[in-house]
Each structure stands twice: as structure tokens, then as C-alpha cells.
Amino acid sequence: MAKWLEKPRIVFARTTPAQKLIIVKGCQQQGHIVAVTGDGVNDSPAIKKADIGIAMGITGSDVAKDAADMILLTDDFAAIILGIEEGRKIFDNLKKSIAYCLTSNIPELTPFLFFVILRLPLPLSTILVLAIDLGTDIIPAIAFASEEAELGIMLRPPRKKTDHMVTRKLLTCVYGTGGVFASLGGFLSYFVVMRDFGYPITGLIGMSTLKGIRPNEGDVFDANAPYFGNTSEEFKTYCDACMSGIGSCDLGDREAPNWLYNTDKHIDLRLWYLKCSPEGVERTADIHTCRVKQISRISDVPVCFTPDALKYAQTAFFFSIVLAQISNSFICKTRKHSFMFGGLSNFSMLFGFCSEIVLCLILAYAHPINVALNSRDVTFLHFGVPSIPFSIISLTYDETRKFLIRNLKSRDPRKPNWMERNHAW
User: Fold this and answer.
1) DSSP letter string over 181-196?
2) Has residue 334 been placed in a domain?
């Protein structure tokens, strides 16, 4: 049997059901993927043993249908190709949806790791993590089910039964590249916002153990409370030195400011900042005016303080993850071809993009909601803008990876190239 099966073309005629089963086993032993069609009861053993058992829907017996993987409702053999293509498309779309959802795990996890290890003020709150998993990611993840089949999907070799949907290569691409770039963009937004509020990057390490970076429940605003460590009079002297150009205005290792809420009079002080001026210390609601000329630096560095600076930074981190996920949806849109082949023909995906942006705007700028979720109405430059370069880099990297998978030559024409073997998920 093995000698006959090695021939390039071979036809077996007038075979018995037992011989069909022997032929199927012989082909499988040589590493072939076998499909068997049948309609009678005697065909059921071969149909069951085959990798793809196909039964006739009209003339087929119930036993053959129970043993089959595919049933031709019209008994048309041309439908076999359409059925296999649809099955491959569904498998691909499930992998794309899983890859999309898993990518956000890394930028959601790393803030808590840095909070524990470096004692940074928590870059992303748990409520905003839930807003991503149960809010912004839901519709785009479902929209992958509406993706059309990729070009050349029927030119791929058959998938083995031992192949899993979530593989090592998928986790490597998702966690090692997409998740890392999304985390870098989120932390850049976080550091930029905290710096704009007067907290330098070096001063953030260990700050979560200090008091005063956010008001506690029941705190009451005190105009004479110390601004950062000592007294407001010392801060006035510090401001005078900055304005006169004497010494450096670097905050150094000073303790975080201690602003408190006026909960008795229900005055919202979350947009007030501390400003150095020739007249002394002032309160202002404009972050762009909260700058002091640094003699020892080229640019101006803000020295404004607010207890809600961390909430603004957390909101910016949240926006960065959402923008990274929009870029990631283009990455997951195709497995080997460029996302430009698919274009934006999937209306469900476009609706998912719009829903993400709208939900972000509601969470940040609808006052009752941002108070409940501890999010804040950030400025346009803090709306995830610092993370956009990392999203572009991530998309460019993945397009390069897919290009090499498609075009890199293989030493053995019968085997895929090195990139496809190790980086195609």
C-alpha cells in the first residue's frame, strides 16, 4: 500500500468499505491530510477516521452524518471548498480577536508592577482597567468576527489537529511587541502629564509612600497648609528666588504638595494650580501660565501643583492604551498580508473605533462620570498624544514582519521561510 501511495497520481476503483479505511490510514501514515466523502452506513468508519469527514446531506444516512465533520446540504461537491474556506476564516478571526484582547494585558499590568517595585504613584487605576476590558475593547473585539477572509487563504497547507489557537508565537508577538510598545506609550504620557504638573520623573520614584499626592476622604481645604513639606512662607521665598533668577528652581527631593478639598462649601478645587509670580504665590486655573523661567535649563519647567495631578496622569495613560488598541486592531486585522489589503471595509470595526473614542470622551469630560470614576478632563496634548509615536512604531514593525514573512526566500522550497516558522502566529 505504501508503495502505491507514493505515486504522483493514483485512483482506487470499486473498493470495499474496509479497503477505504485501509487507504485512509495509509495516507495519514505518510503525513497527508485526508478528506473522505460518503453517504452510506458502510462509509462511516472511513469518514470517522479521516481528518475531514464529509457526508451527503440529501442522500446520506444518519450514521454517516453523525460521523462526518462536514455535511453537504445540497450534495454539491463544490460546496466543500466554500465550507473549508469559511472554517479557515472563522479560525483566523478567532485568533485575531484573541490577539487583540491579549495585547492590552501588558499595559494594564506594568503600571501595578512599577507601583510595587519603584513605588510610583499608581499610573493606572483599577476602575480605568475595567473601563478598557469591559468598555472600549468589547465592540472592536466582536467586530473581528465580521472580517473577510485574507488573500490566499486557500493556498495555505492544511492545519494539523495538534495546532492550537493560542500558540507560543502568538503570545510572543502580542506580549513581546504590541504590549511593550503600548506600555511605553502609556508611561510616556504619564510622565509628561506629571511633569507638566510639576512632578519631575526622578521625583516620582518612591512618591507613593509620601503623603499629599491626593486628598483623602473627609479632608478640608486649608489655605495655610504647607505646599510641599514645610510652610507656605518658605515656598514664597522659593518662588522669589526663581523669579529673580537666583539659584535653580528644581523641585529636588521635596515632599509632595499638601492641597486639600473644601468639602464643607462644595468648592471644586481640582483645576486650581499653584503659580509663582512676582507678587508671590497665586492660584490659577490655567496650566499654561504655571511656568517659571529656569536659569539652569533651556526650556520652562512648570512648578504648579494640584492634588488631582495623578488622576489627570491616569486618564492620559488610559487614553494611550485606547489609541494603542486602535493601532493594534490594524495589526491584528491580517496575519500575513498588509492591513492595507483589507482596508476599512469592515463597518463593524469602524463602529468599534467610534465607540472607543466616544466612550473615552464620556469618561473624561462628562462631569458626573469623571467624578465617579476618578478620571479627568485632560487637555488635547495630554489626550494620548505622547503615545502616538509608539503606536506608529508598533504598526511599522508589524508591517515589516509581515513583509518578511511574505517575501523572504526559503532554502527549502517545500518549507516556509525562517520568519514564517518563528514569527507567523
Assistant:
1) HHHHHHHHHHHHHHHH
2) yes
CA distance 392 to 357: 18
Of 348, 350, 346, residue with least CA distance to 142: 348
Q: Provide the pLDDT for residue 165.
A: 87
The string of pLDDT tens digits covering residues 173-209 is 999 899 999 999 999 999 988 877 767 787 788 877 7
| Contact of 120 with 326, CB cutoff 8 Å | no
Residues 406 and 317 in one domain: yes
| Paired strand residues for 71 | 55
Domain tally for the chain? 3
CA 175 to chain centre: 9
Residues in the chain: 425
The verdict on 286 and 327 lying in the same domain is no
The answer to whether the beta carbons of residues 185 and 386 sit under 8 Å apart is yes
pLDDT of 193 reads: 86
Tens-place pLDDT, residues 216-240: 444 444 444 444 433 445 555 555 5
Does one domain contain both 56 and 101? no
Please state, in angstroms and as integers, the Cα–Cα distance from residue 51 to each residue in 32, 46, 83, 182, following that order: 9, 10, 15, 40
Residues 186 and 325 in one domain: yes
